[in-house]
Each structure stands twice: as C-alpha cells, then as structure tokens.
Amino acid sequence: WKTASDLFLSQIDPDAGLVPVQPSLGWDQPIEMGLYAIARLAQQQHQPPHGSINEKNGNDDIGSQFSLAAERVFDAAISMSMVSPQSEEAYILAAGSALGRAGEYRGCIEFLNSSYHSSRLGQSLVASVMHACVMNGQYKEASDVYTNCLKGPLVSGSEWQWGGGYHTIHPVVRDLALVAMGQTKQEGNSQPAVDLLQQSISDEVPVTIEAIRGVLLACEMDNEWKKAGDILEDILVPINNVKTFTIARDITVIIERTNNITVSHTDVQQHDYEIIGRGPLVDEHMLASVMRTCAASREFGMGMLYSRLYHHAKGTELTHVSIESESLLAATMVSLCGLHCFRDAAELYNTTRANIIANDDTNMNETSDASECYEFIQFVLEKPNDEQNHAWIRAQRLIDKTILLMKEPTYIAADSQLEFIAKMVRSCTYAEQPGTGYHLARKFAAYQLYRQEGESESVAAKLKSYFGLGANSESHENTNNSIESILASTDSLLSATMHAHRKMNQNQDALDRFFWKMDEVHNSTGGSASWTNSHWSQSTNEALLALIEEDRLEEAEHIFDEMDDLARTPDTFLLMANSLYARKQWKQMIDSHQAAAKAGCLTEEHAMKTLEAIVQWKQHNGSIKMRLIRAVIKDVSQVMGVLPNEWLISNYWKVKRAVNKDYIRLLLNLEYSDNLQEIELRISLKQFDEAKELGLAVKNDVLRCMVRNAGSRQRNGNFDGNPVPEAREIREREAQTKDRFDAIDIVGQAVLAARGTSFWNDLVFIDTVAIAFRSLKGNTECIEFVRDVIASGIQPNPRSLEHAHLAAKDLGDSEAFEEFTFLLEEVSPR
Fold first, then answer.
1. pLDDT at 460 over 50
2. What is the per-residue pLDDT across 192-217, written as a single tens digit (0 to 9) for each?
3. Which of 93, 322, 399, 789 shows the greatest Cβ crowding within 10 Å of its Cβ?
4. Which pLDDT band, with edges at 50, 70 and 90, does 611 fall under?
5. Looking at the record's lineage, which domain of life comes first (predicted)?
6. CB neighbours of 679 closer than 8 A, spacing ≥ 6?
7. Would residue 455 be called left, alpha or beta, if left means φ above 0 and alpha means ψ between -120 and 50 degrees?
C-alpha cells in the first residue's frame, strides 16, 4: 500500500509540474486505485486492535475509531482540484468511492460534519459520503446524511446546474437518497421517494436501476401497489418506445453526464445508459417486490398482470422461476392462490423444483415461503370442494391478447379492438379483479391516443403524464380526459368500465363517466336526453344500477321513465324490478311485470320475482292472487314459446320456492286427497331421466326430491328415519317390500348422480340420504353410504352417524355398531 500510495502521490504532487489527473471514474482507473491505496495505507499505519479490513464491505470499527484515512483521501482529492478545478466533483466522488471500498463510511461522515471544506464542496461532498455509506450497506446513515443535507446550509440557497437549468438537489444525491429510502425498509418513505423520482423525470436526469429498486421497496413497505406498478409498467412496456425517462446502470453514468467526463467500462455501448423499456433492466427481485405489494392489497390480478408484462418484455413464458429469485416464485404462487388458481400454483412450484434438480442436482429450501405456500396448496387441494378459478384463466388469455394488441401492429378494425377490450374488462371483473381489467384498458387507450395523434413531442409529454410522472396537474388532467374519452367511445366499453367501477365500490366514478358521456352525446346531437337512445342501453343500465346501489332511487326512476321501449332491455326491467322488490313495493312490481311483458322484455328471473311479490302482497285474497299467478305464468310461457303447464313443470322447483305449498297445489289442479310428494317424485324422475339422456348434470332440487320423496308411503311422516310398521296381510307386506326396494334404488341413483359434484359435500343432503335409507329399511345401504362419505374426506353431521349406528343395531352388525359408537363418541361434546 505504501508503494502504491507513494506512486500516486508523486503523480499529484504540485511540484511535479501541475499535471492534471484524468478524472475517469471506475475501479479500474488510476484515480480510484490511487485514492484507495492512500486509504489502506492510513488504515495499515493505524491498525485497530481487533479484526482486519474486508476489501469489499469494510469493517464498521475502522471508520468509527480512525478518520485519518478519510482526511488523507479527501486532502488528496482537494489537492488534485487545485490543479484541475473543473474536475473537482469527479475527484470528490472518486474519493467517496475509494473510502467506501475501504469501509471508511464513518470517517466520511466525520469529515463531512467537521471539515471546513464542507461548505465549499457542498453537495458533491454529500454525494460522496452517501455513496460510501451505500457501498457498505449503511442505508440508515446515508438517509440521515441526506436529511441533514436538506436541513443544513449545503442545500439552502444553493442550486445545481443540470441540462441548462438550475435545481436544488444534486442528481447523484437524489439518486442515492432513493436507494437509501428503499433499503432502510421503513414505513412512510414511499411518497417522498416517488416525489424525488418525479423530480428526476421532470429534470430529465437519468435514474439508476438501484434507485428504481429503492422506490419499489419503499412502495412495498407502504402497500402502495399502484405507484410501484406504474413505475414497473413504464419500464416494461413503454408506449411505442416513447422515452418517459432514462435509466442508468450506476451513478457513474450520472456523474459522467454531469461533468462531461469518461466512465470506464469494458463495453461502453452496453453499460452507458438505456432508454426505459428494455427487459434486462428489470430483474426478478423487482417484479417480486411489486407482486408482493399487490398481494398485500389483495390486488392479485394486478400482480399477475405485471408478471405477464415482464415475461412478454423478455419474450418468455411463465413455466418456471429460477432459484436465484425464489422470492418471485413465492410471490407468483401467492397471487395465483389469491385468484383460487391453486393447481396452477402447484404446477409452477413442481416445474421449478424439477428444473432446479435437473440443472444442478440441488433442492429447494423446504422452509422457504414458496415451500410453505405449496404445503398450504396441498391442504386446499385435498378438500373435495376445490374449484379452480376458470374465470381468471379465461381473463388471463384475454390479458395476453391485449398486451400483444398493444405491442404489435394490427389490421383489426378500431371498433373490433374496442369490443375486444370491453370483453377483457368484463372478463376480469367476472374473475373478481375489476381493477386489473380497468387498468389495462387505460393502458390500451394510451396506446390509441399515441396512434391517433402521431409521434410528436406533445404526445410524448401526454404519455409521460399518463403515469403522473414529471408532468404538471393540468397536463395530467388533459391526458386523463383523452384516455377516458376513448374508454367511453362505445356503449359496450363504457358499460364494461362502469361495471368495473361498481365492483370496486366506485359508483360515483361510474356515474361521472356516464353523465359526462351523455352530455357529450346530447351536445353533439342537440336531441333529447341521451339515455333514451338505444345505442347507450348497456351503459344506461349500469348507471341505473349505480344509482340504485347509492339509494338514489328517484333519479333512477326518472331515467327509467324517460327511456323509450327501444332503449329499455330485459336487464333494464329486471334491475328496476329488483329495486322495487328490495323496497317491498309489490304493486309497482306487478306493474313492472306487465310493462315488461308488453315491451317483449320479460325474463324468467323477472317472472319469478313477480310471483314472490304477488304472494307477499297483503291487499288481495287468495283467489285474486291465484289469478295473478296464472297470468304471470301465461306471460312468461308465451315469451319462452311453450304451454303454461310445460313451463310450470320445467321450472317447478323455482316456482315452488316463489309461491307456497297451497298455491302450488292449485297450480297443479290437485285435490286435497292427492299426494303432492308422489307427484313431485314423478316430476323429478322425469327430469332426472331427461338430464341423463342429454348428458347434463342433474339439478340439486331433483336429487333432493328423489331422496326425500322416494317410498313416501313407507316412511314415518315425521321424517325421523323410522319406517312405518309392517302390514298384517302377506300381500300388503309384499307390496311394502317392493315399494321399499324400488325406493332404495331411486335413492341410490340420486346418490350416484351427486358423486363428484359439490352437492356431495352438502351435509343436509347427506343427512337426508342416511334418513331415507334407514326409513326404507335399507340398513346395509345406510351404513355403506355413511362410510363412503367419511372415506371421501367429509365429516358428516352427528345425525348421519346416529342413523348409521341405529342401522347397524337393527342389522345386528356388531363390527359396524362398534365403529359408529366410536365415531359418535369422537364428535360428542365432552
């Protein structure tokens, strides 16, 4: 160190001819090598009692006990500045880099706080000290230096020249502050970090990739998913490559552009600086951070959207994740689980694990977040009622197509593109991720805005303001209005975005967009109220729903009354009927039914609501209600093109729920002595056979009726599982046996049809089956059924166990009796 230090000092000796030192920065350059040698010599001459210097990270004790190294290095830098004043900043920053590599961050802080040179060197020295702290992972100290810099005389009253303008904060100081804000991992840093980033963008100052990471980490600490997502998205998918801001590989690039000096790198083209939007600039850790932020706010769809954008930018597919970023694997699995795509998450884990083992014969950390998530998934998949979220899978396909539509030139007509975007938004909303669909629709609209107005500087500024980055509030508002205008250009797209707002509990936003569009249409046509026009019927329906949900019923009724028949759709009548039903306005509901029937807009759902309203209406007796019920059935059967009785039988179970038992008997023209259970059984068996013939799933109501009503004459009327007494006559007993045998077969068919469906997990249905078998003296069938239920992983109610226990007792099956005795003791309260 002494030899290297003496050699370097001889080169900067004022008596050696005042030759300026080349201010090229970088560890492989003489300036940093020489200053590092000076620092190491000072440490060697004043060796601390314990430990030795770590060349890469340094030793915390050195800087705190000895500041001689900092003094000598900064003195050398200042001496070089006397020879070449224009290179002073580069020398000071090189000094911080050398001291940081030597672990002298505390000595740097001491020098900043005590040296009389501090006021003259100003923010160059602050940047140098912060860099030394960051190099040693001392982000809290770097943040404190920045905070003190803002409060102290180094900033107040001073300006920094950059790009022809003057700014308060030095670009390198600002960049290092962003790094520190994220790495300190303290809450409350996200807004200051985003503000600093916006300043850099406004000033057209390059930002390092580490600074971007810092902003994303700060946003993660505060759960600010939208801020983090907007930044990441602008990196991944720039709008037609419009330069929003510039990313630098490291701060030496910023120093170079500040001082017009050379930065040493092996490949200048590769390491100089890059326009944002090139995939390699974003790593998997950055993506994982944003996905965790989204998941913390339950925006799982947004997390997966950013994942898709990342893989599109890289030109890859999400088949596995490299072990170098196991955090991304965990974040992706959590997002998929949040979307109920458990099987996809398990497949991703298994594929990644297999790929790692195949490549380097190592295994994944079994205690990692990803492994723990996989264990949870296995528990979920063991449950028999696991259902994959196919809605999100369909939405993701449309998301991928939307991304391609934005990135690649297309000859699809503009109207067709808007219809596709509307479909994508609705699909995301249906998958319970309305924010994802709406966000991507806005991104698509930004692309459309660019294509409509062409590549101009004004458009680039508009696109910059799309993210609220580096733009004033007026520009941002204008851009937002242009985007919303595109999203309101068709009825289907406007209604889809309004529906998304409603599902995000943003009814007023939905209404604002609707009324703004209606005013625009009204002003352009000079006609009557725009919602009377059938061209905007879907959006009008969404507005009505928003008004009803906001309890602004008079406004909703006013719009409905002004609509003509062409503008009203079946959905329009239905949503108004639902509103009337909720307010128990029975007479108005009947009037609504008649208006819908007259307009040809009656639906079965509307008719069912009307039947319920008629039964609830207290102002009429049974005969008038019966006449109204028959009229409703006649109206809806005409719409469906069938006879009233055919429609009644096809929708029997819905009608039965809408009206009580007395009205259903009258509709079936039954006498008092007629057995309703047997008639319902015949209806259910007919519908069962029709479903089987067509290969369709049997409705739960049909299965429930088959189990409950089969062999009704051979059961105790209390439905307690006890069979009726045996008949005295032999012929009657034979008839009883046959009835029971046939009924057990019907119940068995219902059980077989229920297997593999969600109805198999219905504990009430399980109780009903156990009771049915035992009341029909199918004791063996009762025992085997309950055993099958338990074997499939379902814990039945104690009632089912009790009937299996009694069935075993009636059979004299001691093994089954002991089995169910034990199970009953397990579930009985102690």
1. no
2. 998 888 888 777 778 888 899 999 99
3. 93
4. very high
5. Eukaryota
6. 668, 670
7. beta
Place of tokens 């029971």: 740
Give the Cα separation of 348 and 362 in Å (integer).
Answer: 17
Alpha carbons 445 and 439: distance in angstroms, whole number: 10
Among candidate residues 93, 59, 91, 94, the one with its CA nearest the CA of residue 78: 91
* One-letter amino acid for residue 616 of the chain: Q
311/556 Cα distance (integer angstroms) = 45
Which CATH number does the domain 682-827 belong to among 1.25.40.10, 3.40.50.720, 3.30.300.30, 3.40.1190.10?
Answer: 1.25.40.10
pLDDT band at 147 (very low <50, low <70, confident <90, very high): confident
Q: What is the chain's mean pLDDT, rounded?
A: 81
Under 8 Å CB-to-CB from 665, ≥6 apart: which residues? 674, 676
Domain boundaries in the chain? 1-158, 284-339+342-388, 569-674, 682-827
Q: Which two tokens stand for residue 264?
A: 């040493």
Q: CATH assignment of 569-674, given 1.10.3470, 3.10.450, 1.25.40, 3.90.1200?
A: 1.25.40
Closest CA to 126 of 162, 84, 168: 168
pLDDT in tens, 175-187: 899 999 999 888 9
CA-to-CA separations, 507 to 413, 503, 544, in angstroms, rounded: 31, 8, 10
Claim: this prediction has a pTM higher than 0.90: no
Instruction: Provide the strand spans (E) within 271-312.
Output: 273-275
